[in-house]
Amino acid sequence: LYLVRPEAPEGDPPGPSDDNPAPPAQPPQSSQPETSDGSTTVSTQVTPTVSGTTAKAEVDTDTMDKSVGALLEAAAEHSTAPVLEILVDSGSASHVEVLLPVASLDTLGQHESAVLTVSSGAATVTLDSVAITAVAQQAQGQQVTLTVSPVAAGDLNGHQQSAAGDAPVFDLHFTSDGASIPHFGGGSATVSLPHVLSPGQSAHGVAVYHLDDLGGLTLRDTFYDLQTETVTFTTPHFSRYMVGYQESTGNPFTDVAEADYFHDAVVWAAGQGITLGTTPSTFSPHQALTRAQA
Q1: C-alpha to C-alpha distance for 273 and 243, rounded to whole angstroms
Q2: Which end of the chain, N or C, is surrounded by fewer C-beta atoms within 10 Å?
Q3: Predicted confidence band at 113 (pLDDT cuts at 50, 70, 90)?
Q4: Is pLDDT above 90 for 119?
Q5: Residue 4 — pLDDT band, cuts 50, 70, 90?
């Protein structure tokens, strides 16, 4: 575990300046990789610089290289999937930026089962190995920046405003030396965002859409977790995403008939967000459960 934590000032002092510089960050501290359930995980905790609603964090190359090296060595020893977690203590900041070294990402992505997760109060972003490699290969500089931020209605163009209405919109993107990284090379990212249901809404009605420049909406596979009050979706690229809501019309699954003895239970569970089904339109009632599903 790598911990980067600046000294906590007392009272309400003025911000950093030439006469009052910000305190230096403490050196990172390392912990042992943890292996369980077929994966080996190394975590790096970072305390960002916070100004208003914006939090900015950076993982330096030395820290990242040590994390990736220890992770891949342990994963090879146990024949497990390597998972690197970057934990950003962003508090209530809604705009979060995380800088990561490209060379370390490239090394991590070379393992076909590798996973990178960047977690903050604003979002949890998980990349598979193909996406990790694609981000590293498209980088123009030595660092990439992951940015997660809500988008104000005034920052949307007219087409987007008409499509989104009052629904919340989020901007997610990777950049390197100011250049956008447009896609994940056939890989994918899974994103979880905090989202509180309005009174009368059900979990199954929550839907995340890619919102393009012309106001077009593309539905993404979406799951809402009632316990954590988060909405999770998967996407092959980053852009602007709208968290919308569709009134449930009842049974969303084409393979669950009203005559089936389990019909009412399945429809109720789907409406409560307890089950997502095997796809948004199928439940696969006769398919054997995995250990994780059980």
Answers
A1: 16
A2: C
A3: very high
A4: yes
A5: very low
Kindly state the tokens that stand for 153. Answer: 């209605």
CA 225/CA 274 separation, integer angstroms: 8
Nearest to 193 by CA among 52, 58, 96, 54: 96
HSE-up (13 A, CA, CB side) for residue 264:
1
Partnered with residue 176 across adjacent β-strands are 179
Spatial CB neighbours of 162, under 8 Å, sequence gap ≥ 6: 215
Contacts of 55 (CB under 8 A, 6+ apart): 48, 49, 88, 90, 91, 93, 95, 96, 97, 120, 122
241 in Cβ contact with 169 (< 8 Å): yes
Q: How far is 118 from 147, CA to CA, in rounded Å?
A: 11
Q: So what's the pLDDT on residue 29? A: 55
What are residue 62's phi and psi, to 5 degrees?
Answer: -60, -45
Report the phi/psi class of residue 67: left, alpha or beta, with left for phi > 0 and alpha for psi in -120 to 50. Answer: alpha
Nearest to 130 by CA among 111, 147, 149: 111
CB 212 within 8 A of CB 239: yes
**What per-residue confidence (pLDDT) applies to 13?**
46
Residue 270 pLDDT > 80, yes or no? no
For residue 96, what pLDDT is reported?
A: 98
Angle between helices 129-138 and 102-109 (to 10 degrees): 140
Q: What average pLDDT does the structure give for the chain?
A: 86
Place of tokens 């009203």: 258
Q: Per-residue pLDDT averaged across 65-69, rounded?
A: 96
User: 10 Å Cβ neighbour count for 64?
Assistant: 24
More confident site: 291 or 258: 258
Q: Which tokens belong to 54?
A: 């914006």
* Tokens, residue 183: 């896609």
Q: In the predicted model, what is the mean pLDDT of residues 44-68?
A: 94
> Is residue 269 classed exposed, middle or buried when 0-12, 13-18 and 19+ CB atoms within 10 A define those classes?
middle
